[in-house]
Design goal:
It is built from 13 helices and no strands. It has 322 residues and is mainly α. 31% of the residues are buried. The mean pLDDT is 86.
Length: 322
């Protein structure tokens, strides 16, 4: 629960990388700007991680530790490969079948929705994982709080990107990305399901069940052939995103089932159903009455969904720190 070193190693290198983009652009003026900005960020992260470390780094070969790490980590390694297939598979299919303009739209959409999701899910994990890993009598209650926190953040992501995203696209990206604005809600919905599922991953990881995220990701990967078929058949980009939304929702539900069956955690359904109702109502509004209708449903749904997150509200109200 000491986050200072983590914050330093994550923010300062990113800030340094951002600050050098303009001088590098003036100096080089081509794609090398991205390469050197990223290399600078990685190098600064490496150096700072040693500076703030409380223990020196040593290379040792302990077969027991290596064996235990492999048993614990192989599902996480597989899940990393599956996530790479998920995040890049859609782009490969779109670029290969629909062309570079469609690829630019979906890649920018991923950047505007996936990046905040990853930041939020990592923050959730950093906060709850150390506390959940202690176990004890407080685990079931704190696990429910973590699940509701993930639901709340997923609603914030969906509402925030849906409301502010189109304006950001217009002001920052201009007319070249005008086709992205009506797709942002659906892409935000896709990442909202993955954000909600991050709560499952944190709880399962805290008890050593590392296969949950892998199993949930498999459901999304299995739909990549469907995305390819839809693209070849000439369906529009929105349909491909809908298939991705279905895959993420399926992964979210698979995570709930595994939490109950493999960990024995009782699922509290009102918060889950409230978020699913928000998703369903906002999806209908996005298709039937976009604009003010979608905004109204999102705001009302967010307020209603937040109301049923009783365990999270009680945890925040009491200032509990377990």
């Amino acid at each position: 629960m000491v986050f200072g070193p983590l914050i330093v190693t994550k923010t300062l290198p990113a800030l340094l990388s951002l600050l050098v983009v303009w001088p590098l652009a003036v100096w080089m003026g081509d794609f090398r700007v991205m390469f050197w900005a990223i290399m600078l960020q990685i190098t600064a992260t490496l150096v700072l991680s040693h500076v703030v470390a409380t223990r020196p780094y040593r290379v040792l070969f302990d077969l027991d530790v290596m064996r235990g790490s492999l048993v614990f980590g192989w599902p996480l390694l597989v899940n990393g490969a599956l996530m790479f297939a998920v995040f890049q598979g859609d782009k490969v299919i779109v670029g290969r079948v629909l062309g570079m303009e469609a690829l630019a739209v979906i890649a920018m959409g991923y950047m505007l929705t996936l990046t905040p999701m990853q930041v939020l899910s990592r923050s959730l994990q950093n906060f709850f994982l150390p506390q959940l890993s202690r176990g004890g009598d407080a685990f079931p209650k704190l696990a429910q709080v973590a699940l509701e926190a993930a639901l709340f953040v997923s609603m914030v992501l969906l509402v925030g990107v849906s409301l502010a995203g189109p304006l950001l696209v217009t002001l920052v990206l201009g007319e070249k990305y005008a086709a992205l604005a009506p797709l942002l809600y659906w892409m935000a919905l896709m990442q909202a399901f993955r954000m909600a599922a991050s709560g499952h991953s944190v709880v399962s990881l805290s008890v050593g069940f590392t296969a949950l995220a892998m199993c949930a990701s498999i459901t999304r990967v299995l739909l990549l052939p469907v995305v390819w078929w839809a693209a070849v058949q000439g369906f529009e980009l929105r349909t491909l995103i809908w298939i991705g939304v279905i895959g993420e929702m399926a992964g979210y539900l698979v995570g709930l089932v595994l939490l109950h069956r493999r960990i024995g955690l009782q699922i509290v359904w009102p918060p889950q159903l409230a978020v699913l109702c928000l998703v369903g109502a906002s999806g209908v509004a996005a298709m039937v009455w976009p604009g003010i209708g979608l905004v109204s449903v999102l705001v009302l749904g967010f307020l209603g969904g937040s109301f049923v997150l009783t365990r999270l509200r009680a945890h925040l109200r009491t200032g509990a720190h377990i």
